[in-house]
User: Fold this.
Amino acid sequence: MQAMAGGLAVAAGVGLLAAGGKPPSRASKLAAGGAALLAASVVADSAMEHYRGNYKKPAMHVAPIAAAITLATAVATLVSARGARVKTAIFGGAVTTGLFGLGFHVKNILERPGGLSFNNLFYRAPFGAPGALLLAGLAGIGAVDAQAADTCGTVRLRHGSGRLLGALTAFGLFGLTAEIGLLHFRGAFHNKLMYLPVSALPLNAVSIAYAVARPGCRHERQAAGWLAGTMGLAVAGTGLHAYGVSRNMGGFSNWTQNLFQGPPVAAPPSLAGIAMIGLAALDLVTPGSEPE
Amino acid sequence: MSAIASDAEFTLRATKGRAPNVFRRGEWVPMREYDENEPVDFAIVGTGCGGSVLAARLAEAGFSVVAFDAGAFYRPLEDFASDEAEQEKLYWLDERISGGNDPLEFGSNNSGKCVGGTTVHFQMVALRFRPEWFKSRTALGYGHDWPVDWREMWRYYAIAENDMKIAGPVRYPWGPKRGRYPYREHELSASALVLARGAEAMGVKWTTTPTASLSAPRGEAHPCVNRGFCKIGCATNAKQSMLVTYVPRALAAGAEIRDLAMVGRIETGPDGRATGVHYHRDGKWRFQKAKNVVASGYSIETPRLLLNSASEKHPDGLANSSGLVGKALMAHTNNAVWGIMNEEIRWYKGPPSLAVCEHWNYVDEGKDFDGGYSFMSQGPLPTDFATTLVENEGPFGADLRNWMAHYNHMAGLKIVGETMPNDDNRVELSDEKDRLGLPIPKVTFSLSDNDKRLAAHAEDFMSRMLEAAGGSNLFHTASTAHLMGGCRMGDDPATSVVDASGRSWDIDNLFVCDGSLFPTAGGVNPSMTIVANSLRIADRIIAMGKRGELSQSAAADGKRGA
Amino acid sequence: MSREHLKRFRTPYPDYNVLAKWDTPSFDDVTRRVIAHRLEHVPKRRFLDEAQYALLRAVMDTVLPQPERSEADRIPLEALLDEKLAMNLTDGTRHKDVLTQREAWPRGLAAIDAEAHAMHGRGFLSLSADERHSVLEAIDTGRVDGEHWKGLVPKSFFRHVLLKQAVKIYYSHPAAWNEIGFGGPAAPRGYLRLGPDMRDPWEAEEKRRPQEAEDLSEDET
Ligand SMILES: Cc1cc2nc3c(=O)[nH]c(=O)nc-3n(C[C@H](O)[C@H](O)[C@H](O)COP(=O)(O)OP(=O)(O)OC[C@H]3O[C@@H](n4cnc5c(N)ncnc54)[C@H](O)[C@@H]3O)c2cc1C
Ligand code: SF4
Assistant:
């Protein structure tokens, strides 16, 4: 708990540091917003899951704290273009933490009876959470990068930055498909709507990859449509997950159990985060979208 | 056990055109009712794995069906307390006289009494037989062959598992390929991990137990919350007992269920055929006319009913020309090894038997006995464990309290061990009468040398495994669980009571459909096999109806009683 | 079995009170009704006579001694057992040639008293705790005279009737759940943390290890 408070203090410091600079470009804002949403979802998820894990290992405090710092930095990036280097360093830290987290989670699974079994994949430390932190960090770096590209304004730089963010979006969407696929499979796809994200997200990934791979090929509008759909999924998914929680015994009045019992209400918003990164990428590659 | 919890044991609930809605507090579903004087197509005695499945399937096929149960009709959400003592209300507690060298314990060990039958308090382990067991005489050299082919049973297992949304592993490590379980496996509890660790140390396979408890929502039923009271009734409705699966289906399809209705006698006419059932309900004896009667009261009550229905034409009881009614009763040996673990296990959490090892069901080498056994991780509630402890080991005084203080550190492995069918193990009628004037059953049971060798093998193997998993202060306990047999089905009227369709060889409109049909016990818990077999029998009966082979051609043409 | 029984029992969960969850989602209405009844309603003696009842209490205090509890907090085993007998609650099994519960208890109690006389020259009630323990131990190990048991097998009566009924009552009581750290009622709220050494905030916290257990199997003769 003290460590948490310390982490939040650092985060607040980051916020102060960034205040007062000039407002960032649209693309940078979008990417930073995406990073913020992803980080927020990691804060909620890892705080809850590691609380469920009784914070057995001190390292379990790291994830929620790192996510909180990333969140604060992303918000700072959203409002101000100042302190690019510090921000990049902090986002780099998030990337490192995400990678370590993935490593820990793999180790946790392999050490258990059954090893790489479905039971362990279903119920043990998930890949999704550290993966989302990794994405948030990368998106943050992308946001700083996009700001630089937009400030300089050359098409080449903007396209390069857009491609990176686009690739990140596609990568994130595939990763999320795998994670959601696994967890919805655990839920036996008992509701047909559970097939929706696993079928829509890969198509969205392909469309964004296509759009950024060949800038100006007029596939941006299509990709933007898909991204809007993914946003819609985020909203609908959150609602459906909340409905899922209410279907557990005792519903919301038994929240001490049921918020954990799931489905996780904090998970679908991360879809919106990824969609925002995708929108940032499109903004950078779409002709005529340069800032004045 | 008292009116404090609910009035279900004292007040008829399935009556006046409605029956309890098991998914909601205080609510009802409409129920069709039939006239006692108008013969229904099927009068079914019992609503367990045999009776309720048959009632649902036959009603869905358009037959008129009345199913009777001696027990109460509960709504789990409001009637089931989180309390062992209270939940004894689910057991069949009417006295049975128990004799033989290894007298059986009834009640909590093997017999339920409520609408939905014994599955309302079963432990939800949902396993299939090993295919060879359906031909154990021919293929393995012991017991009797079943009059069915394993591939047919495999198909019906899949239907049963889907009807009960069994939560099972993605790949099952033993036996021929099976389709994917409809729901995914549950999270392993600490007590299940003990078995897993031990199995890996011993180099044998283990898996998450296929479990009749929801790992995801299903309709109005909530998913499992790991409260661990499964064995005394699930107040969550996650447990897929007959009460929340086939019973609602039967009602929706137009079957009538009569709760608190004890059937005392099956009446036969001058031609020797069944004409209906005498039952006691609401303080008096009544009679329901029926074109066909099905006995589904399980291995003690089904033979008891057939024997008590003796008439001039059937002096030794109904369907008993072979003399086999009540004979070859089987139980499973339920020996266990328990130990203290260093870590906290807290085995009261989650479905109690979430990990299983069927190694010795599928391996025949290195055994000095016929048959097989499976074993599972354990999670007994306090009085259940304390009873096992004192009956087997007898600690008392501060020592007893001290032993029980290790409750949260205990782990256990317990077998479901096959016993051999033996005609001397049997159900008979005693001279004593119960409060309704019905003869009290007398049950004789002795373990064979083979059964004892099997149990000894299991104890040795499991002890080594529990030790390998880190258990200390090991001790063994012996008991039995489940009932099978007593009205064997078969291909030959001389050596069986009923044929492969459950139809008695002697009376063409009298059927048996429940666990008493088992020719052999197998080394797995019986309920999925009972359900699958009942589904199979239902299809056979429906086909007979279509061919006009049923009594008075009670055809599936939608024509119903009153 | 050494003089283990003289050791005082010490719970690993001194701070745990399952009833503290009364108003939380761990308890539902039906469970509250059932437990409230168990706690508030101490049945009056109906079946046994006064002397048998006093003897029963002494036997229960030997089988499950509760020295740390006041009279008000003590789990009234004798009263709850007497009620079961009065209501003729059975468990579904009557062993052939074995007495019913209603027949077995009076006779078993009388036999225990007779053993006390045979071993110590005094009735069970006037024996010390240690002597009482030794009488029951002799019965459990079969070192007793068959004469006054008349139709009861001493060891089976002791384990399958006396101890069994005693623990069924004792471990149905919330005070007993506290001392063993049992989670108790759990509906609608069940549990989230299932792994080894994992505990939900609404479960008992182990403050010290349980005392060494005697090795039961080696104890067997
Ligand atoms: C504690 C326990 C745990 C178990 N765990 C498992 C497990 O994990 N897995 C598994 O596969 N199996 C398990 N079983 C066994 C399983 O529950 C039974 O084998 C199965 O339910 C038997 O089905 P049945 O239809 O033959 O009989 P039952 O389910 O017993 O149904 C018979 C019904 O008939 C009624 N009845 C009987 N006679 C009459 C009459 N004369 N008039 C009116 N009604 C009557 C009874 O009230 C009862 O409801 C367990 C059993 C117990 C006791
Ligand atoms: S553990 Fe699951 S199945 Fe068992 S009683 Fe609880 S909710 Fe029901």
